[in-house]
Amino acid sequence: MKKYLHIALMLFCVLAVSSCKDDDDDKKAVEQEAYKLEQEAAFQAKINEGYEKWASEDNDGFVFAKLIKKGDGKQAYFNSLVSVYYKGSLTDGTVFDQKLLEDGTPFNCAVSPYYSTTITDPVTSVKTQYGSVITGWGVALQHMVEGDKYEVWIPQQLAYGANGSGSIPGYSTLVFEIELVSVDVQAVKPS
Q1: How many CA atoms does the CB half-sphere of 63 hold within 13 Å?
Q2: Per residue in 111-149, pLDDT tens?
Q3: What does pTM read for this prediction?
Q4: Cα→Cα distances 167→10, 97, 147, 155, 158, Å
Q5: Burial bucket for residue 164 (CB in 10 Å: 0-12, 13-18, 19+)
Q6: How distant is the alpha carbon of residue 146 from its chain centre?
């Protein structure tokens, strides 16, 4: 009889612990859905705040952009390699990454990830790596000329999606200040 009582008690404890785990999972799912909805609302609010709406070439979505400083240099295209200064933050203002003028060297990137590469200067043999960027950056950079500086709002679908990245939670709308310093390798203008 004692044996059955111990088994019943153990079974009760297992069920009690597993039901608590389900409650925690449900709570996390509700919090994540609330965060996702909050981020979507913050992004959609830019419609009424004087931001330009720039669609992606693949119709995957769009970004909102607001001009901070107008440039007059070369246009960036989907297959351009560029240098930029930027500051990235969450919608609450938390800065997660930046490469500013005060830091010295700008960030080098390919407008489209298909063109990320390393270029070696034939005279100095210095290698410059042009990394890939999130889709939302590619959308924004294709609308910019050298010297332009924009505030760009990128929805989670054109950023890191449900998974997030590092300190960026999943479903985050990202806010960037992007200044196009130079188009280092100018693409042929599409016909």
Answers
A1: 29
A2: 998 888 888 989 999 999 999 999 999 999 999 999 999
A3: 0.83
A4: 40, 10, 30, 16, 17
A5: middle
A6: 21
